[in-house]
Design brief:
The chain is an alpha/beta fold. The chain has helices spanning 9-12, 42-51, 73-90, 107-122, 141-154, 182-209, and strands at 26-30, 36-41, 55-60, 67-71, 96-101, 126-132, 159-168, 171-178.
């Protein structure tokens, strides 16, 4: 395409100029493994790219002369997109879960609710714990406070009190934050699943061969 023609899609989306779109007399050339080739005429740089079955990519257009690198541009774009996707996936946002309790909760219900809180914290999520007061219970806020303190103590290995108990109308609210970040929790859960799958596959293989698990 001649100079002064239509603006290419690459230019519109701020992608680097490659191959014949690089319109300079010479470039500072970098090899595919990062080695410094030196300043060469653009024609020679393009010849080297064709001989190597690679692309000539302008990586520093404002330098004097511009810096260009030999690379597989299609592969580079694909790997860059995958890295960006993985980074977005790892930037998982912490979710606030909510658990509601009554001041005079029975022991079985308390253990059930505590189990939910532990599961949320293990998953890297914050937990908003709400004590709901009804009728005369509103005159006994210390009951809710003691219950929240007990819960915080019971899950101290998994989380910490991020927001201390405070009265909010008929409710008392406390927020417990996880010790582990969301991404760390997800990584640990994935590893645990992989280990469980490996154990199941090993057991299945031993069953097919007629050997007892752990036998010689």
């Amino acid at each position: 395409m001649a100079p002064g023609g239509p603006i290419s899609a690459e230019t519109r989306f701020n992608e680097p100029r490659i191959n014949d779109r690089i319109r300079v007399p010479e470039v500072r050339l970098v090899g595919p493994n990062g080695e410094q080739v030196g300043i060469v005429p653009i024609a020679k740089a393009l010849d080297l790219a064709r001989e190597s079955d690679l692309d000539l990519v302008e990586v520093a257009p404002t330098a004097r002369p511009p810096v260009a690198k030999l690379m597989d541009y299609g592969k580079f774009k694909y790997e860059s997109a995958m890295k960006a996707r993985e980074a977005r996936r790892n930037q998982a946002h912490t979710i606030i879960k909510e658990i509601k309790l009554r001041p005079k909760i029975d022991p079985h219900d308390y253990e059930t609710k505590k189990g939910h809180v532990e599961r949320f914290l293990k998953g890297g999520d914050k937990v908003k714990v709400t004590i709901m007061f009804r009728g005369r219970e509103q005159s006994r806020p210390e009951l809710g406070y003691r219950l929240l303190q007990r819960l915080a103590q019971d899950v101290t290995e998994l989380g910490f009190v991020e927001s201390n108990p405070k009265q909010d109308g008929r409710n008392m609210i406390m927020v417990i934050g996880p010790h582990k970040k969301k991404a760390e929790a997800k990584a640990e859960q994935a590893e645990a699943r992989a280990q469980r799958n490996a154990a199941r596959e090993s057991a299945a293989d031993e069953e097919e061969t007629g050997t007892e698990p752990g036998s010689e």
